[in-house]
User: Fold this.
Amino acid sequence: MALAKIKKSITNNLKNIYGWKTDRKIVVFSVDDYGNVRIDSKEAIKELNKSGIKVKSPFRGFDLYDTLETKDDLEMLFNTLTSVTDKIGRHAVFTPFSVPCNIDFERVEESNFCEFHNETLDVTFKKLAAKQPAAYEGAWSIWKEGISKKIMVPQFHGREHVNLKAFNEKLKNKDHDLITSLQNRSFFRVSNPEFTSISLTAAFDFWDKSENHGFHNIVKEGLDAFEKVFGYRATHFNSPAGREHSSLHPILKECGIKYIDTPFIKSEHQGLGKNKKSINFTGKKNKFDQIIIVRNVLFEPTKPDVNDWVSATMRQIEYAFKWNRPAIISSHRVNFCGHIDEKNRKKGLDSLRKLLKNIIKKWPEVEFMAANELAEIIYNEKYDQ
Assistant:
């Protein structure tokens, strides 16, 4: 136990040694996976289990609890975020790294599961409002209200949360698990033995480096769809699983992306199973003049491997502020989903509310802002490493 605490302390110090400095107590919530369809409903889980596919919870509960955000999910989240205000009277804000497109399940089925088709997020919400009105009627309007009130400031997480190489290969092979999942309007982590370097849900994973050129149209179409769906051009990008190759950065820049979320230690696939590691820090600029943003705090309150996520997250924020860094908190939508199990959402939101109260009590001078706002400040300032 003592050794584990020492390791955590070393890690928390190391990830804050370098980067942009500020005396301001800035807190950002960067939350992945909004807009993405994973599990459709409780009924879908029952049907999948009947078919022999056991919907388990191997990774932060994604397979078991992660659904497109419902009306109740959004309303309860907004109530929690607006329960506190910072020193200038601004409530807490989420930066949902979001996809503007999802699988068009009906058209894929009409193709006899031979072709990939997608649809924009507003269409997804419209379909779900018709199929599951108790959960989704009015949800898209609430989403847009959250944007207008700056409770949610979405940024780009890729066109859709799907790796098309793996997806199309599985369709070609008539993969039972994938097709059964699609028949139940769901898309979740299934086994992927075909490609050791590709995850089915990591949109920009590849095997041969030349495949990255094929992602250019996905980036362009995705950012155009993002503007259509959310009403403005995204400037900040975080790839699904954080594993895009740097060869995509020029096309992202061309399409308006000025800021890129990158892991502190990134293992970048170079092709054919070879990887290259790099150390990153907030404020670093790449050769295309894009600002790198590194999340230095973790908050996954429904993940069971930490007994007290609020205390653990508070300690990480303390380390960030000790080194005069902003606290950039990484999380995922699944922590705040209640469509499958309301207790999951309650646990996540109760923890979030407690965390927010603790933050403003300990640091009354705190400032809440969106991730792209922080990045814009850094972009326009010189900084000391």
Observations:
- The chain has a mean pLDDT of 93.
- Residues 95 and 153 are 5 Å apart (CA to CA).
- The chain is about 40% helix and 15% strand.
- The domain at 19-379 is CATH 3.20.20.370 (TIM Barrel).
